[in-house]
Each structure stands twice: as C-alpha cells, then as structure tokens.
Amino acid sequence: MGLTGIQIFKLLPKTNCGECGVPTCLAFAMNLAAGKAELDKCPYVSEEAKEKLATESAPPIRPLTIGSGDYAVKVGGETVLFRHEKTFVNPPGLAVQVKTDEDEASVAGKIERFKMAQYDRVGLKLRAEMFAIKDTSGDSAKFNALAKTVSDQTGASMIFMSDSVDVLTAAADAFKEKKPLLYAATPESAEALGNLAKAAACPLAVKGDGSLEGTVALTEKLSGAGVKDMVIDTGTRNLKTAFEEQIMIRRAALKDRYRPLGFPTLIMASEMADGDLMEEAVIAATFIAKYGSVIVMSDIQPHVLFPLLLERLNIYTDPQRPMTAEQGIYPINNPDENSPVLVTCNFSLTYFIVSGEIESSRVPTWLCVQDTEGLSVMTAWAAGKFSGESVGTFINKCGIKDKVKGKNLIIPGYAAGISGELEEELGADWSITVGPREASQIPKFLKTIKA
Hints:
CATH topology of the largest domain: TIM Barrel
Shape: globular
Helix content: 40-55%
Number of helices: 17
Number of domains: 3
Radius of gyration: 26 Å
CATH architecture of the largest domain: Alpha-Beta Barrel
Distance between the termini: 70 Å
CATH class of the largest domain: Alpha Beta
Low-confidence stretches: none
CATH superfamily of the largest domain: Dihydropteroate synthase-like
Strand content: 15-25%
Mean pLDDT: 93
Structural class: alpha/beta
C-alpha cells in the first residue's frame, strides 16, 4: 500500500523552493502519492527520506520518452485502469516498420504516406509518430543508412530492432541524440544491451519468451543492473493471450504496485496479423484501448490509420474536461478591414461547425472565439460565461478592433439576450447584430450581410 500525500510530505524538506516544478512541497507530495512525479525531482530531500520513499513514491508505471523533438513520444505514467476513474494521460505511439532488405520503392512509399497521413482535428495534429527499423542482415552500415534516410526525411522517433548487439551498438552510437528505443533485450543479450542502454541513455525494450514469468525475470535482472527506462514486449503473438497479459500487467502495476511489471508495453501488431493490414488494424485498435504504449504496424494506409488516430484521441481525452479550441481571432477566407466579425464559444464542436460553415460560404470573415471553458453557447450563456460583460471584455482585449473599420459584431442567435448589455460594454461605436440560431444558416446570412 503506498504512502499518502501527507505521509510523504512529512519526509520532505518543506522548503517550498519550487525547483521540482510545483510551487510547494505539499503539492509535490500529492503528485508523488498519485504517481505523477519522481522523487529525484526534489534536490533537497535527505538520503534517509530517499531510502524510505524511493519505492513508494515512484510512479506505478514508469514514464519515459522515446525520441526527441516534435515527434517525441511520452509513454507510461498511467495511474488508473479505466479512463472514467480519472483519465489516461499518455497516448500510445504508432509506428510503421521498415526492413533493411525492403526495396527502396516500398520504403519511400511508407515514408511518403507517413508524411501525408497527418490530420488537423480539434486544434490537434493527428499522426503516427514512429518508425520501427528492423535489421534482417546483421549489416550495421545498411541499418544505419536506412535509419538516416528515415530520420532525415521524416524526423520521426525511431525503434531500432535487431538480434545483433553489434548492429544496435553502432546505431545507438550514431543516433543517440535521437533517443531511439533499442529492441530487444533477451536472456542472452540482456547484460550487453543493458550496458548499451545506460551508456547511450536510450530506453530499452525487453522481449520475453511468451510468458509473464520470463518477462519479469528480464526486467528484474535489468533493474538490478541499473537500467530504468524499459518497455515490455512479452513475446506473445496470439491476440487473446496478449490481451489477457496486458490487463494482468496493468493490474499488477497499479493495484499491487508490482515493480517488475511497472513499465510501458509494446505490441507487435505487424507480427500478429499474418500480413493482413486490416487484421493489424483490429489488433492495433484492441491495444490502443487495452493498454499498449507502443504499437508497431507493417504499413500506414490512410484508411487504416485515420480510425486508429480518432480512437486514440477519444480514449486519451479527459472525460471530465470538454475538448476546446484556443481562444483568439481566426481569419477565415482571407478577411480584410471591411469583413464581418462573428463571435462564438470555444467548445470544439461549436468552433469546427461554425468555422466550417463560414469557410463554405466563401465570405471573408473574422471569427472571434471566446474561452467559455469548453461550454456550448447555450450552456455558457446559462452559466454566465457567455454574457454581455464577458464577451465585451474579450472583444475589447483580443485585438479585433485594430483589424476592422466597421464596428459591427455578429453574435449567435441563441445568445440574443446579451445584445443590450454587450452594446453597453463595447460603447456607442459598436453595433450588435443577432445572427442565426443554427450554424447551417450562416452562409446565407453572411452573403446577405456582404450584399
């Protein structure tokens, strides 16, 4: 049973220095108790306290980062079995596999699809993040050349896969600043790859013998040797068994605080589907939900990838917090100083529907999006978060006054009741027009305004 936040707080230095990233020692203690922080973030904790807290304060599933830059993938750090209990926090990384014996056209096609299959949704960039580069010949030069091609052309995070310690050593030395995941330590290679992972400061995957017992033996051996950042592949390639193992691993880590299984997991969907990409998609979808941290596929096709990205987005969105668009001014259809000005809330669905209708009208328009904490127009109005005062304050401060000559603001039809108060807030220079109640009527309305 882990210590409570108050019990941990009593062992901390109570300096409230903020160097751990939070303002007070109490807040840091609460994060430790929740598995959201690591004790070594505190520079002033005593050795005695370290010894007592080290085991209890570590996150139940170790968080780690694979790769660097824009495509870096943070995995692990989860604290719940089910997202409705709290939330899942670190979405699984999706990887496409390329092999050293693969023809250049096939590799080029995968790279091109990787770059093209990127989608903007709810203000986020949805995409795969990783390439798994597999050695099939034991040729270090060939492996490094393929890794360089992938890295230079995509910037993606990388998984280096080889049965040869020499190949992985050469690749880790050449690309260690990219923080690749080294795959995979087996009973035979554990000592050598453990030393390599520590020297290169790269995360290390362990590959079991198809059983949890064999996997535990490996993680215990490597942990004892000082390897901290590990990713588990149990070696199982049967969907049913792998699914059961994922649940047992998560439960053991969270409920029993069983450290040998307290690591992110890797799923080789490419080896479980017997060459069928659609079957791979089903396997990937299964482990996005339960509880894969890195999922490797043989290819990226848009019709396969896009549903997986949406599933990942939905599952790893906090169910207690609405999805929102960023507050600000959005120019649509290249507006100028004579273009109309609309205002709406930042509930993501409202924003995308309204902006889509404006775009389809082809009328140059300024869309001002106010932060309503993710509430829709009607709900925000009822809660007092989309009032004449709040909208007026937003319009006065957002900078739209410097972009337009005309001082006419169009408000949603459902918020018609704020028009009088809003006129008082904005002053005599501004007039308020009540727009349509339904977004589908916006194109016709804007064309009337333009006329």
